[in-house]
Amino acid sequence: MGMGWVVTLHDSSFSILGNDRHEKSDYSNALFAEYLALKKGMLEYVQADGQGPLKVLGDSQTVIYQMRGIYAVMDDEIKGVYKEIRALIKEHELDIYFQWIPRAQNHKADKLSKTKHKISLVYPNSRTCIADVGSVKISKNLKAKISELNSCKTPTSLMFGKLHPASKDVFSETRFHELQEMAGVHAASIASREFPGASRKNKHYQAEALRWMLRGLAVDLAIEKVRSDVRRKDNGKKNKSKRNKNAEQKKNKHVRNTRSKYYFNVKKCRYYQ
Q1: Domain total for the chain?
Q2: Do 56 and 39 touch, CB atoms closer than 8 A?
Q3: DSSP letters for 24-35
Q4: pLDDT one-digit tens code per residue, 150-193
């Protein structure tokens, strides 16, 4: 059974995304998986030193209403997980609120539960950097942005979007094979694994990831930076295509209207010899 969870602070400043799989047994069911997802999400929140208030959104009305005390927990297997979650809340004195949402509004967690590869959240204290941002020859402004990202629990796409060199630096023109040598075998293998393939496009993505690692950005964040840039570029192309399509439709509509008016007027004209 697939499980996915999204744990979000009340002000939406920090979200934890995660997923896992559970081998189905004679005793486990979909509701049990929902409770396991809740427990795992809570444990990740505690590990991330979440300060709350915490909002947990779920599309299982039974789980949400049981956690809020509206429904009673009757199943013995589920009761065990339920008590563990309650103990976790009490132990860490969590300010928590449970809210039911329709499945259509819970697409993030639903998608995570169906994702084959495991999503892992890397916390600032366990991130790996192959270069010290303080000693790298880049601008002070870029150093500040990289340091901010490295210390941020969940960097946003906006933060990645603002991360770019104001001008070319020592890594901008460095060739791919040189970047691999500078970054080392381990970093190069990670970039190759995340953007597999020998195509020109994938090699470009690998090179960009290595450039950001060498500038001092954490390895996991360097990979996410490249992915964020790719998504932004693809969305830009889609929006441009949509604008062009709308402009073309508007133009064609204008032409049709003009022709209709023209032929209508021609029909009324009188000709003399």
Answers
A1: 2
A2: no
A3: --SS--HHHHHH
A4: 988 767 778 888 898 878 888 998 999 999 999 999 999 999 99
197, 68: one domain: no
Ranges 26-35, 192-201, 207-216: which has the least confidence: 26-35
Distance, CA of 112 to CA of 6 (rounded, Å): 9
- CB-count burial class (<10 Å; 0-12, 13-18, 19+) for 129: middle
Calpha distance 231→79 (Å, rounded): 43
Of 114, 142, 173, which residue sits at a domain end?
114
Tell me: do 193 and 245 sit in the same domain: yes
Helices (H), the chain: 30-47, 61-67, 76-91, 107-114, 140-150, 157-162, 176-183, 185-194, 200-214, 219-268
Q: Which residues, 6+ apart, have CB-to-CB distance to 173 below 8 Å? A: none
- On whether both 170 and 40 belong to a single domain, the answer is no
Q: Do 128 and 205 fall into the same domain?
A: yes
What is the reported pTM? 0.55
Supply the DSSP string of 175-225, one letter for each residue: -HHHHHHHH-HHHHHHHHHHS-SSSHHHHHHHHHHHHHHHTT--HHHHHHH
Q: Which residues of 194-232 are buried (b: 16+ CB within 10 A; e: fewer)?
A: bbeeeeeeeeebbbbbbbbbbbbbbbbbbbbbbbbbeee
Mark whether 19 and 56 lie in a shared domain: yes
84-112 residue pLDDT tens: 999 999 998 888 889 998 988 887 777 77
19 and 82 in a single domain? The answer is: yes
The partner residues of 200 in beta bridges, in order of sequence, read: none
| Domain coverage including residue 196 | 122-273
Instruction: Give CA 25 to chain center in angstroms.
Output: 32
